[in-house]
Amino acid sequence: MKRAIDGATEFRFVDELYNTPADSYIDLLERSGDVASVMLVGHNPAIEELFTTLVGMDVVNRTIPEGYPTSGLAVLDQDGNGEGWVLRDFLVG
Fold this sequence. Notes:
The structure is a single chain. 29% of the residues lie in helices and 16% in strands. By secondary structure, it is of the alpha+beta class. A two-stranded antiparallel ribbon has the order 1-2. The two termini are 14 Å apart.
């Protein structure tokens, strides 16, 4: 992945996120400051919990009714007021 992204992109591996609840991911997002983009890569159940927390159960039920798939990629944007999240795309590799 690092080869496909420009050299100005900062990569951080956060070991504490392995096997941790979604709240830890949310804390990381809140601490990320004013960066333009954040990519989180993780495992279930935390990633599915995070997705559900950010976009809500209605969106989850419409998008992935059978659960968050292996190699699933959710593309989210913060809404206009910076308080919530909007699903832009969902890809499965």
